[in-house]
Each structure stands twice: as structure tokens, then as C-alpha cells.
Design brief:
Layout: H1 3-14, H2 23-40, E1 47-52, E2 58-67, E3 72-80, H3 87-92, E4 97-102, H4 110-113, E5 121-125, E6 130-134
Length: about 140
């Protein structure tokens, strides 16, 4: 199941700027929405853990694991530090990671598009923010 796709839809549906949340609120939002995604798919769980991950490309990166009776479901969420994206790292983690990049000017993102050719992504632009979501 493509959990990052569903999490991307939750971000769009909630019209939420995750970068505006403090770390505690972000973690709570991620965990509760991952549980909701699982429940919508009739996948019921008994417990959830969130583990911070270290990666030099990310300002914030974590892995959320939900434990069911017979299976463990997981997703990773990360906020990229800059437009200098390591294509291989993104492709390697594509199956279970949603990455977000907030940027200033649309023209800054154009060089990034070449490395995103094999990935799913969406641009969001509102009055207050410009965001690239890679899922």
C-alpha cells in the first residue's frame, strides 16, 4: 500500500502547513493521520512508535511504525533542508517516504525537476507558502 500517497492526500485535505507546526504538534499530527489512513484501509493496529532518523539531507526525518496483530506498517516523513536533493536517496526510499521541501522562488525548483522525473510529486503554492511534496 502506498502510505505516502494517502498522507499527501491528508495534507491536501486538511490544507495544513506542516512546517508551521512545532515538533510536538507535527509528531501528533503525523501519528494520528497515519492511524486514520490505516483505519480507512481496514487495517487495525494496537500500538504506534515514532523514531527520529538522521539524514544530512533532512532538517527533520522520522519513521512511524504501527503494529497490528500480524503485521507492521510503516511510513517515513521528512522535511528536506535544501533544493540540493540526492536523487539516489530519494528513489531508494520512494516506497515508504513522503518528503517535503519548502522553497522561496519557483524558479529555484526547476533544476530539481530533472531528478524527480521518476518520482511522484506535487507542487503547492498558496499566498503564504510554496511546497514541493515528493511521495
Amino acid at each position: 500500500m502506498n502510505f505516502p500517497f494517502h498522507l499527501k492526500n491528508q495534507i491536501l485535505q486538511d490544507n495544513i502547513d506542516l512546517s508551521a507546526l512545532d515538533e510536538t504538534d507535527l509528531i501528533q499530527w503525523l501519528v494520528s493521520n497515519f492511524v486514520n489512513i490505516l483505519c480507512d484501509q481496514k487495517l487495525f493496529i494496537g500500538s504506534v512508535t515514532l523514531t527520529p532518523l538522521k539524514n544530512t539531507n533532512y532538517a527533520f526525518l522520522c519513521k512511524i511504525e504501527a503494529f497490528g496483530a500480524e503485521k507492521v506498517y510503516n511510513i517515513e516523513y521528512g522535511e528536506l533542508k535544501s533544493l540540493h536533493i540526492n536523487k539516489e536517496a530519494l528513489i531508494k526510499n520512494k516506497p515508504n517516504r513522503l518528503s517535503i521541501l519548502n522553497f522561496e522562488k519557483t524558479s529555484d525548483v526547476i533544476p530539481v525537476l530533472e531528478c524527480l522525473d521518476s518520482l511522484d510529486f506535487i507542487f503547492l503554492k498558496t499566498r503564504h507558502r510554496k511546497t514541493l511534496i515528493i511521495y
